[in-house]
């Protein structure tokens, strides 16, 4: 094998001929603790993100679903934003936990040669980017709630003074 890749769901070996053979992890209970924890956090993150999408769509001003009150709709949008922030935090925790374990195993004294140890892969960087974007989007949704002093304020059109002369 030219390259070995290990993730949360499977282990793969790439050959010099271009063939890639992947194998799912056999048993959930035989996995290491950091993989089990990262798996659980990623599933929780996916669920929170899914519910965040649904709640945010209901809270959008352009949808007819839900209350017609703009304050209630903005509060629903803020709840969707909170779900997105929590989803991003779960993703960040899962990816960082896995990266910490990879770093620990790389620098640990062992009999494995240095060129056969695992290093950071592209999935870790994609995970960090996804967590950042999810938290950014969630925080922008959280900022959509109107301030308390502006909630009761209505927009009124101010009349302009007439510049035309009135003839009597």
Q: How would you explain this protein's 3D organization?
A:
This protein is 54% helix and 8% strand. Strand 1 (3-6) and strand 2 form a beta hairpin. The protein contains 4 helices and 3 strands. The protein has a domain at 37-113 and 122-146: Butyryl-CoA Dehydrogenase, subunit A, domain 3. It starts with a strand and ends in a 17-residue tail after the last helix. The model has no long low-confidence stretch (mean pLDDT 82). Its main location: other. Keywords: Cell junction, Cell membrane, Membrane, Tight junction, Transmembrane, Transmembrane helix.
- Enumerate how many helices there are, as a single number: 4
Assign an overall shape: elongated
How big is the Rg? 26 Å
Based on secondary structure, the structural category is: mainly alpha
Largest sheet: 3 strands, antiparallel
Helix content: 40-55%
Mean pLDDT: 82
Give the number of DSSP strands.
3
- Intertermini distance: 99 Å
CATH class of the domain at 37-113 and 122-146: Mainly Alpha
Strand order of the largest sheet: 1-2-3
Subcellular location: Cell junction, Tight junction; Cell membrane
GO cellular component, one term: plasma membrane
Transmembrane segments: 40-60, 76-100, 120-143
Keywords: Cell junction, Cell membrane, Membrane, Tight junction, Transmembrane, Transmembrane helix
